[in-house]
Amino acid sequence: MKNFRDYITLTKPRLNSEAIFTTLAGFYMGSPSPIDWRLLMFTLLGTTGVAAGCGALNQWFEVDADRRMTRTKKRPLPSGRLSTSKAFWFGLTLSVLGVAILYWQVNALTAFLGLCALVSYVALYTPLKRITSLCTIVGAIPGAIPPMMGWAAAQNQIGPQGWVLFLILFFWQMPHFLAIGWMYREDYARAGFPCWRWLIPRGGRPGSCR
Length: 210
Hints:
Layout (H helix, E strand, L loop, with lengths): L1 H9 L2 H18 L6 H25 L1 H6 L15 H23 L1 H21 L6 H21 L3 H25 L1 H7 L19
């Protein structure tokens, strides 16, 4: 049971509940009446798999940084409760299953958008966090894709409405990122993550919160 809770923690359920909710909102807005409940179920199931896989792979990638941060050092990987190899395969399996469900049970466009969210979060945003504060712009992309996925699942196209949903969530995330950056600026400094320049205390080093 304890390991089960650790695996759940790897998926970042609190963070990814936003992705699931916004996917639901996009699907609802794009659905003709009546709603196709079977299609909605598989859309949410596939989205959950992709989002959970992103969370696990992100923690696998950042295990060393998480050990240095007070906020994250008790997570399953830095605390040693789970091995990094188990986390990697767990995250990869969830990601593949999520994209496969979207492809076979929803449509190819939604699966492609899910894959874009996965790649932009794990392969772009996560490593860029160690390089530049502009990673927040990249990180807003996978965060804004879920409502577009919901729309594409219902409509089998994106269209201008889908892009509007994407842009709303994309710009909404910026103050969210900045607030988190300010709250945990010292933690991010210990982990070696760059911060926005205006977050650097007077006399601090460029590219760091310290």
